[in-house]
Amino acid sequence: MFRFIHAADIHLDSPLRGLSQREGAPEDEIRGASRRALENLVGLCLEENVDFLLIAGDVYDGDWPDFNTGLFFNRQMLRLREAGIPVYLISGNHDAESKITKSLSLPENVQAFRVRKPKSIKHPTLPVTFHGQGFATASVTENLSLSYPEATEGRFNIGLLHCSIGDSPHAAYAPCTVANLLTKHYDYWALGHIHLHAVLHESPHIVYSGNIQGRHAREPGERGCYVVAVNDDLAVESLEFKALDVVRWEQCEVDLGGIEDRNAALRKIRTAVMEAAAGASPRLLCVRLTLSGQTPLHSELHVGKEAWRAEVVNVAQEVSDEIWVERIRLRTQSPVDLDQLAGQSELTAQVVEALRAIDVSEHPSNVMDLLGKLPVSAQGELAQSDHALKENVTALVIDALTSSATHEI
Amino acid sequence: MRFDQLQIPAFGPFTDFSLTFESNSNDLHLIYGANERGKSSLLRAIDHLLFGIPPRSTDNFLHAHQKLRIGATISESEEERLFFQRKKGNANTLLDADGNVLPDTLLKAFLGPVDSGFFSSMFGLDTESLRDGAGALIAGEGELGSALFSASLGSTDIDAAIAKLQEGADGLFKGRSTKVRIPVAMKAFKECEKASREATTKVTAWKTLQKALKAAQEEFDRVDEVQRKSQQRLRAVERLLSALPIISQLAHARKGLEELAYLPELADDFVERVKQAREQVRECEQSVAVRENQLGGLREQLAAVKTQPEILKRSEKIEHLYQALDAHLSRKRAMPPLRAEHEAKSTQLGQALEKLGLTMVDLTSAPKVTTDLVEKAEGLKDGLAEAASKVTLAKATMARVSKESAALVEELSVVSAPESSTVLKALRERARSAETARSRKTELTAELKKLSRANETLAARLSLADLAVDKVQQLAPPSTETIHEEKARLDGLEKRIERVGDERSDLDRRIHDEETALATLREQGARHTEDDLAKKRRERDEHLTAALEGEAASRKVLPREVREADEVADSLRSHAEQIARAENHARAIADLNGKRELASSTLGKLSAECDQWQEEWESRCAAIPAPVQPPHDLIGWVTDWRELREVLDRMAEVEDEVEVLAQEVGGAHEALAEALVHSDAEFGSLVALLEERLASLAEATGAHQERVKRQAQLKRESADAEEAIEKAEAERERQQAVLGELTARFPAPIDGLQRLQDLASAVEELEQRITQEENAIQDMDARLVAVRPEASQENHATEVGQLWAELETAKSAESQAKVLQASIDAAEEKRSHDKAALESASAAVTELREICGAAHMGALETTLAEIERKSECRKGIAKAESNLASMSGGQSLERFIEEATGSSEDELQGEKAELERVLPEHQGARDTAREQLNVLKAEDAQLQQASDAAAVQQQQAELHLSSIVSDVRRFMELQHAIQFLREQIEIYRERTQGPMIESTSTYFAALTNGGFAKVAAQMTEKNVPKLVGVREDGSFIETTAMSEGTADQLYLALRFAAIDLHLSTYSPMPLVLDDLLMTFDDERTTALLPILANLSQKTQILVFTHHQHLLDLFERNLSGQFVSHRL
Fold first, then answer.
1. Between the CA atoms of A105, A108, A114 and A115, what dihedral angle is there, to the nearest 10 degrees?
2. Does residue B7 carry a pLDDT above 60?
3. CA distance B137 to chain A (A)
4. Residue B156 is nearest to which of A21, A375, A409, comparing CB atoms?
5. Chain A window 58-97: which residues touch B at a Cβ cutoff of 8 Å?
6. Rounded to an integer, what distance in angstroms lies between the CA atom of residue B165 and that of residue A393?
7. Peptide bond before residue A364 is cis, with ω within 30 degrees of 0
8. Buried/exposed code over B474-486 (b: 16+ C-beta within 10 A; e: otherwise)
9. A206 vs A20, A50, A56, B366, B1112, CA distance in Å?
10. Cα(B26)–Cα(B820) distance, rounded to whole angstroms?
11. A2-243 architecture in CATH?
């Protein structure tokens, strides 16, 4: 009978995080990734010729001040207006207090729900009623769903809500439960806020569409929206996820257990990267590699980190120019037997013993000096567990010990 | 190792020189010799003896290089002694007493790890080498230098690793450097942030722009209106001015039209139509005349053309003759060669038949000889030839074999078979086994020596040197598990005692604190308690009762009792707070005292438990013939004892094995001597003799066997040749039979017959072809005659050519006549058409004349001129009205003419000048407003593009931020690793520098008679340690600030400490001091002598001097503890 698209968490013009500057990196590919993803969303609406588009919050990203971002959003909405496709949206925690939201006049085909209390809007021609309420502030902690109106008899009822359901790594805004939502007897809950797409319930459907573009390595896999078809009985007939992202994030774990040879390790990494690249094609792939397993290369990996990174980047580029190695996490283990190492000299015995209880909770003074000079945003990123720091420092120390093992002091 | 005796047959100034060093408890020898007595030569001789005479030795002034010999007897113990001599040379310079070469390993076993350099720097000391060596030690060089300063000299591999880590860290961040990675990335990050901010369009900026845009639009609209109106008025005035002459022209045209009103009203194009009709009449007349002329010419041309219909009728046959002409001529030319070939082949066939004695009938009746048949016959002939060749070859082989066999039989008849080598081979196996046993025995003997030394070392360490081997092995110390258990038990007890002791100390401290607080409160007035008050009141009441009963004493004290009770009550009231707190403290003290008693009691019990454990432990250790040691120390003792036991077991095993091996070697030696009948020869010589015999025996056996083998091979070759002859003969007969059968049915040899048959076929084919060609030629001649009966067959080609030319001419004339006739027909049709048109045009002119009212054709021209003038007037009116209408600006024509004629031209000119003056001003204002509006519109349009510049810069900043985070993370790791390693090295340095420093301190204090208490390692500002002398009062003096004598004492102390350290690990090595004490005064020397005496109990010391007073000092201070030698 009719079809619509459910999307959310566009975070327009928010940068991709965690990618380090380096020679030859495909920087052009990542510029404006969120804009390209939004263009893809609009393009999909036109291609599928849907009847309307739902956006369940967070069009913009926090306090981003550039009005150009809002104008770009409007231009995309105008494309939909020309095709006669209406848009229904709510504000989320990220764009609730955005100056852009408050100042931008939306095209007439876009209807934004008010933020003080829920509202119901009837589709002008289809038997569809939309219920929604936007975020008035960045931190809404009450359960908004409770005050949503009851379903309208004989119509397809859609609830738009930006909220947290269950345990989530995201902040618990407008927390609610599936049971809460079911009590409203809506036919479709179009949810936003959680960036991983998921169907929480079917008939009635409770769906997170996820964000349309992953922003960092902790948001791996395909990102996009749901195309929903509703039949003459006003029941969801099909629900299909469509990828919209232009840059794909993936995390690959490569087990180097038992591998002794540098080239063999690189071959294994190459295989893993190829597999990841195959899934992301034709997009740019940003991949985080985690190297694990007990290997004699453990020490070399930690000590020659930069050289290894360069080699891995080369390997990735051999696979495809459309790959950016975001980070290489070392979770390998050393095959060096510390007890055996301790037996090599009195000094190594002492160092090995002390190493077991090494304390990295207090940084050396020159590290503190440096930390004081860093941008605030970098300091937030640097929060690293003592355990990881300890692991890396231990590897460096063991390498120092093994490289001096022939020297009896 | 020590020198028992030096024997120098020939070296430097020495000839058969000898010096014996008796061994006693002090192995100290003073070798005195005046200058030029060979003291320095003797020192060199000792070095060369141990490590070789250098190639360019200058000690050949008395004995030639090849005769130089230095000898010595050295010993490690009573059992291990070696006499050897050293000669000059590159290799094999070590000799025994008889001059036989000794392996270098024999001497090496005594020297251990000491090489020439190490000996001269450590054990061969003069003042210079002492100072140099000390310098190296203080600089931390060498193993001992490292031991002195441990690991902190910046020369260890860990220091190198730290430097590498530091290098990595410095590449990321280094102080204020702006060129390393992190500052560079931070700068780039800030620049991108700034660029992002600059590219950002704020909401306020957008709103401001929209407001300005609206205002600019309104201003533009206003000034545009003013300018537009002025412009309109100017244009209106200009139109009015322009209209005035046109209005005048209009009036004139209207007047002309009225004058020609009598003419009929005709269309505007009437005159033009009359002209066209008259022109058409003229054109039609000309056209008719042209057609007449054309027709006359065409008819004349047609009459001149001659056609030939007869020739055209035969055109098809002529064309066929012409097309076949080339083939016909070619065929005629080919006939003579064909006939000649036929004749030649016929003659050849007749001759061939005659040669074979055959007729054509025989030939035609014989069967056809096929190519397959001929090839098969050829194959059979080849087979026959091959079989014959094989027979010849096999017969030649038979002859060669027979000859060689006869020669071999003769050789074998004169040579006898050699004897068997089995016994000698068995003997060789036994000899080889014995050699292996000898080698193994040598290895085991060396191992036995090592084990013996280990045994002595361990036994001495365990204080079990005097205990028999079986007793050592039967010792039963507590097991390791028991010791660990006991250790844990003792540790537990000690920890508990320590903990309870700590608790009691803590209680003591708390009691003291409480008592102090109580005392303070008492001083502050809290001297009484409620009990005190009750007691005082009770006493008061008792005295009051007694006083009331008349007791005088009570009456006397009653006032004081009353006062005191009141004072206590008052005190309680005024110091209520202090008293309450004092009571709390008092209660706490009582409580703590109780706890302290409990702790003391526990401590007593634990001490008793500890005593009891000690008794039990001593009882457990009673079985060990060593002082009772705590569990911790006993673990080491037991480990050493187990090692000793293993050493003893291994020694027993090795000794047994050595004995078995010796028997095996002896037995083999005897067996060899007996078998080879050389009872006096050594084992090695016997083995060589045995190998020689076995070799000659093998040679003889080999030659005989070779001949026998060759004889057998010749027999096989002879048999093979006979067989080959038989096979070849049989094959030849078989192929001969097949060939005969194959050729029997032919009247002649098949190859000749086949050639004849081929020739006959060729002749027949030629005959057929000649017949065909002749028929074709005759056919073509007949066709030519059919077309042209008078034609000659000999000139066939010419005739056909003439026919063809005639046909071409006839065709051309026919075509030309047809074209001319068609042209005449067309011209006649066009002439008829032109005449009709002329009639029609003339009628039209007549009709037009009548319409315009001209009486006849002569008046037509005048009438037409008047009609044209009337038309001009009408056009002038229309044009003027049209121009005025276009100028009127929408007004009616009459209204516009009225407005134009309503104002004077001068007035209009004045208004126009005024408008032209103000209009540029209005235009300027409009342009300015428009420009401002356009600028704002451009800004708005730019904004509407929704630039992503700010977002792109933000993304770029994010890239730099990630680089910063990654690099800082790495920097943190590197700095933590560097800090950790530095701390560990410092801890290690402090912990391990002890033994070397301690030993040096002891020697230095003794050498300086207590002038310095010790030495110490101090760190410089660059984290480099340096050695200093420390006095009793703690002050220190650096080596550079010491006097030469004191510095030498320090260096000597360092060297003694180093030697001590060496001797703790390796075998003794003689210490040679060469006039070392020349910077020492008597006091310093006297201080040194007891140290030398003490050290000489550990290793041999040879002191060289040419100072008599040193000899005196030795005799005065070390009488009986040294031996003097004079050169």
1. -40
2. yes
3. 15
4. A409
5. 65-69, 71-72, 74-75
6. 11
7. no
8. ebebbeeeebeeb
9. 38, 20, 13, 109, 112
10. 163
11. 4-Layer Sandwich (3.60)
| Phi, psi for A241 (deg, rounded to 5) | -85, 135
- Which of A393, A394, A398, A402 to probe the B interface (max B CBs under 10 A)? A393
- The burial class, CB within 10 Å (0-12 / 13-18 / 19+), for B1100 is buried
Provide the token pair at B983: 């701390």
Contact status, residue A45 vs residue A80, Cβ threshold 8 Å: yes
Q: Is the pLDDT of residue B353 over 60?
A: yes
Among A231, A83, A56, A17, CA closest to B959: A17
Cα B29 to Cα B1096: distance, rounded to the nearest angstrom: 9
CB contact under 8 A, A374 and B186: yes
Q: Which of B944, B955, B961 sits opposite A375 (nearest CB)?
A: B961
Asked whether the ipTM of the predicted complex exceeds the cut of 0.95, the reply is no
3-class SS of residue A374: coil
Q: Which residues on A lie below 8 Å from B151 (Cβ)? A: 347, 409
Report the C-alpha gap between B43 and A69 in whole angstroms.
95
Q: Judge whether residue B150 has pLDDT over 50.
A: no
Q: Is B92 left (phi over 0), alpha (psi -120 to 50) or beta?
A: left
Residue of A42, A360, A367, A408 to mutate, interface with B, max B Cβ within 10 Å: A367
Could you tell me the strand order of the sheet in which A198-201 lies? Answer: A119-122, A128-132, A156-162, A188-192, A205-208, A198-201
DSSP state of A60: B
Rg of chain A in Å (alpha carbons): 26
What are the pLDDT digits (tens) for B583-601? 888 888 988 998 899 899 8
Kindly report, residue by residue over B196-222, the tens digit of the pLDDT: 999 998 888 888 998 999 999 999 999
Q: What angle do CA A393, A397, A400 make, to 5 degrees?
A: 145
Q: Is the separation of the CB atoms in B246 and B883 below 8 Å?
A: yes
Q: How many CB atoms lie within 10 A of CB B706?
A: 10
Encoded tokens for B896: 């516009």
Cβ partners under 8 Å of residue B662, min gap 6: B441
Q: Evaluate whether B73 touches B26 at the Cβ level (below 8 Å).
A: no
Q: Is the dihedral of CA B778, B779, B780, B785 positive or negative?
A: positive
Nearest residue to B248 via CA among B903, B890, B900: B900
Residues in chain B, overall count: 1127
Would you tell me which residues 17-36 of chain A have a C-beta closer than 8 angstroms to some C-beta of chain B? Answer: 17-22, 25, 27, 30-32, 35
Phi, psi for B1021 (deg, rounded to 5): -60, -30
Closest chain B C-alpha to A181 CA, distance in angstroms: 37
Inform me whether the pLDDT recorded for B899 exceeds 90. no
Contact predicate B1046/B131, CB 8 Å: no
Kindly state whether A381 is in contact with chain B, defined as any CB-CB distance less than 8 angstroms: yes
pLDDT tens digits for range A136-161? 888 888 999 999 999 999 999 999 99
Task: Kindly write down the DSSP assignment for every residue of B333-344, as one continuous string.
Answer: HHHHHHHHHHHH
Question: Rounded mean pLDDT of A31-55?
Answer: 96
Q: How many residues in chain A? A: 409
For A56, residues 6+ apart whose C-beta sits below 8 A from its C-beta are A6, A7, A8, A9, A89, A90, A92, A160, A161, A162, A190, A191, A192, A193, A209
Domain boundaries, chain A: 2-243, 250-403
What residues pair up with B1125 in beta bridges, in sequence order?
B31
Between positions 324 and 363 of A, the ones with CB within 8 A of B are 327, 346-347, 350-351, 354-355, 358, 360, 363
User: In which residue are the tokens 């037009």 written?
Assistant: B848
